[in-house]
Amino acid sequence: MAWFSRLIYRSGPPPEDRHRMRAVANSLILHLHPPRVAAGALRFPRTWGLGGISALLTMVLVVSGVLLMFRYDASVERAYSSVQALETVVPFGSLLRAIHHWAGNLLVITAVLHLVRVFAAGGFRAERRMNWLIGLGLLLLVLVFNFTGYLLPWDQLAFWAITVGTGLLTYMPLLGQPISDFLLGGPEVAQPALRNFYALHVALLPVILIFGLSYHFWRVRKDGGVTLPAESTPAPRLTTIPHLVHIELGVALITLTGLFIFAMLVPAPLEDLANPAHPPNPAKAAWYFLGVQELLLHMHPLAALLLTLIGGLGLALLPLWDRDTADEGIYFRSPTGRLAGAIGALWGLLFTPLLVLVDEYWLDLPTLLVLLPTLVSNGLLPLLLTLAGLAAIYAGLRSGLRARHSEALVGLLSFVGVALLVLTAVGIWLRGENMALIWPW
Amino acid sequence: MRYPLIAGFTALLVLITALSIYTAREEQRMQTAQADLRQVAITDASAVYVQYCATCHGATGEGLGATPPLDNDGVRGMDYDTLFKTIARGRYGTAMTGWHVDEGGLLTTYQIDQLVALLRYGEWPQVRELAAQQGMIPVSLAAPEVANEQIAAISALGPEGSIWANGLNLYAQNCTTCHGATGEGSSLAVALNTPELRSQDAATITRTISEGVPGTMMAAWNKALQPEEISALAEFLLHWDQVEAAGVALSLPTIEQIDLGDAEAVLALGERLFTTTCTTCHGENGSGGIGPAINSQQFLSRKDDAAIEQAIIQGGKRPNSSMPAFGERLTSVEITALVRYIRSLQATAPSVANPRGTQQGGGGPPWLRDRQP
Question: Which residue of B has its CA nearest to A79?
């Protein structure tokens, strides 16, 4: 085996087995991690392990996805039967599909929580700007992954969620129609769409993901690791092996166990075969898009998309918007920031349902302002009102709490985040037939 | 710093345990999932069947006129390929067209697979119920009836007469839909009541029936019939001219489509069912017999529709009641029609001195003493 050791070590191998083992482990692990990490970064509540859990879920998704590819057939004629076969005649096929399905959904949640965590710790400023953007891109990639994967079982749920989803896209001016045409390869969801989504899901997106993820990891290390509060005395540093590796291994095993047991208990959903002639009522997009779909019920599509776009742009430009590095690493900046965040969240929790109810039952702007075109009365006006409301929240926090810019931003963004959460919840649970409000029990 | 590792390995232990349990149950889970899937396929196929197939093959797959029946062991024993290809591509020279979308039809591969599942594992009562809800009431007898006088007439023909009678009976039940009631043949099958056929020997005919004719609709009947039944059939076919000369002929029953929105038609159906099913015990026009006099004010004023329906579905609730449960034998549509017909009697029903049936002893009217606990 001498030639093999030469391949790995180039010069002679370490003399003892113990050293050899160490050398291999160290070199692999230390490609990702620095040799030593600050003790503060190792405290679990500092990160909640969210980035690591997301990375682990990505690996689970790659492995389970590759296994699924052995039995899946991306043709309209056979996609559904191949999934049925997976569920009934392939040993562990149902479990495999459930693991892939739930890991994909969980990844959306952990990635968003990771974003929230990094925002709260202020880890998006100065040299971390670039990685914040990469991270946002990766989150978008996760959503596209989920969106493309959603169609593949070719059941009613898949077919109509994608029909609704690509329908949302076409509202986007200029770009919407071409993107939708490219994705679907035709005017409706049919064989070309299934083939396209499959190609994107298993070939193009994974390549982008691997490059993006590698860059994301590399930047984390190069930008100084986890954001920590500045301290007067130099913080103690611990060796990565075993301190960090033990935590990672522990969290990974617990996550895997949780995911696998959940997948064993709750199989992935599979509805009837897709039937383009019979739309379900209500026809809903995938759950993570229901916030936007809910927004569409309240304003002109253009306004809703513009609002989403402004939100995304705001997140992307956050490093330029908030450059105050004084409170870096302190969760929610300061006690004032924490209060602002709580107030923002509370307002979001109160006002969003209230506004949904008001718009659903009392306020009907287009009939009230019958002289104006609907693009103004149902589009521009609600959009401006919403933006004015957000500005008012920001201004109120600034003057009422005497909050600094970065502290007021915490309040503003926690309002927006909670509002989106509420809208999504309304979309998931409170929308029934014809998208009318219902009480779920 | 050991804590996360301990927690992690505990989790791993839990995972290994859970995986072992899952593995142990996997085989059974797959069996159940397959059974469930087959059930779903049969249910879906029933709807497709009623929509596309029932007009020719009959509301319960009993076959109509020249169209072959599907609810028999011959079809159930056919292999997947034959059934799939027959449905997908049709059958040349017959009324059966290609149903697959690729052949200009209306059904997808998936739907045809489901239809094959229905044919092979068939649950025709389910189809019958669905068809009834669409207003297609199957005839109570799919095959022509062979009357006792006819059997007696054939038996009198000679020493082998009883075998021929048996053969005629089997022919009526299994063969008429393709070969015709008088053996005249159809677009699906050759004529049998011919001198050419009678010129063959019994062994040839027996072999044809037993093994079928590849490339035609003629199934191998040795899966469904006993050897002695097949030879009885062959004997009958060889002597059909003599049977016919004795004046014995079969006639096919006909199906009728009922407009369920038409109250008159439903009442007529109810009346037909009542006379064929109920009067044996409940007397002519429901005037009473073994069972109570339904056509009486006492009965009708004390029982509401729900109670009557319940009694038809579940049978008599009194111990030793000889009222059978009809829930399995009649579809919901037929039961509703029956109840409506019974209710319609109330306008003209007489008051009867003693409405009780002979089976119910004394001690006052049963509906007064038989309180629900």
Answer: B110
pLDDT in tens, A315-344: 999 988 888 877 888 888 888 888 999 999
Give the distance from residue B272's alpha carbon to the nearest chain A alpha carbon, in angstroms: 39
Residue B34 contacts A where some CB pair is shorter than 8 Å: yes
**Cβ–Cβ below 8 Å for B110 and A81:** yes
Backbone angles phi, psi at B259, to 5 degrees: -80, 110
How many CB pairs below 8 A link A and B? 73
What does the alpha-carbon distance between residue A125 and residue A406 come to, in Å, rounded to a whole number?
Answer: 11
Q: CA-CA distance, B278 to A202, in Å (whole number)?
A: 66
Residue from B16, B30, B36 whose CB has the most chain A CBs within 10 Å, to mutate: B30
Record: contact A252-B34, CB cut-off 8 A: no
What is the structure's pLDDT at B285? 78
The DSSP-derived string for B149-173 is: HHHHHHHTTSTTHHHHHHHHHHHHH
> B110 to chain A, minimum CA–CA distance in Å?
7
- Asked if A39 has any chain B CB less than 8 Å from its own CB, the reply is no
Dig out the tokens for B349 from the structure: 């029903």
Q: Compute the distance between CA of residue B204 and CA of residue B101 in angstroms, rounded to an integer.
A: 40
What architecture (CATH level 2) is domain A35-276?
Up-down Bundle (1.20)
Q: Omega into B69 within 30° of 0, i.e. cis?
A: no
Q: How far apart are CA B359 and CA B291, in angstroms?
A: 7
CA–CA separation, A282 and A297 (whole Å): 13
Distance, in angstroms, between B35 CA and closest chain A CA? 9
Chain B partners within 8 Å of A265 (Cβ):
none
> Which are the contacts of B31, defined by CB distance < 8 A and separation ≥ 6?
none
Pick B22's closest partner by Cβ from A95, A247, A273.
Answer: A95
CA distances from A341 to A197, A313, A315, B140 (A): 39, 21, 16, 75
Domain boundaries defined on chain A: 35-276, 281-441
State chain A's mean pLDDT as an integer: 87
β-partners of residue A431 are A437
DSSP state string for A175-225 = THHHHHHHHHSSSSSSHHHHHHHHHIIIIIHHHHHHHHHHHHHHHHHHTTS
Q: How far is A315 from chain B (nearest CA, A)?
A: 34
pLDDT in tens, A82-136: 999 999 999 999 999 999 999 999 999 999 999 999 998 888 888 888 999 999 9
Give the closest residue to B290 by CA, choosing from B329, B324, B336.
B324
User: CA A82 to CA B219: how far, in whole Å?
Assistant: 32
Q: How far apart are CA A134 and CA A128, in angstroms?
A: 10
Domains of chain B: residue spans and CATH = 33-137 (1.10.760.10), 148-245 (1.10.760.10), 258-355 (1.10.760.10)
Q: Is the peptide bond before A319 cis (omega within 30 degrees of 0)?
A: no
pLDDT in tens, A375-409: 787 888 889 999 999 999 999 999 988 888 888 89
pLDDT tens across A32-71, in order?
788 788 888 888 888 888 999 999 999 999 999 999 999 9
Give A127's DSSP letter.
Answer: G
Distance in angstroms (rounded) separating the CA atoms of residues B233 and A218: 85
Residue B219 CA from chain centroid, whole number = 20
Q: Does B26 touch chain A (CB under 8 A)?
A: yes
Q: Which of A243, A252, A264 faces B22 most closely, judged by CB atoms?
A: A264
Taking the C-alpha atoms of residue A365 and residue B100, their distance in angstroms, rounded to an integer, is: 51
Nearest alpha carbon to residue B133 among B42, B275, B258, B274: B258
- Residue A48 — left, alpha, or beta (φ > 0 → left; ψ -120 to 50 → alpha)? left
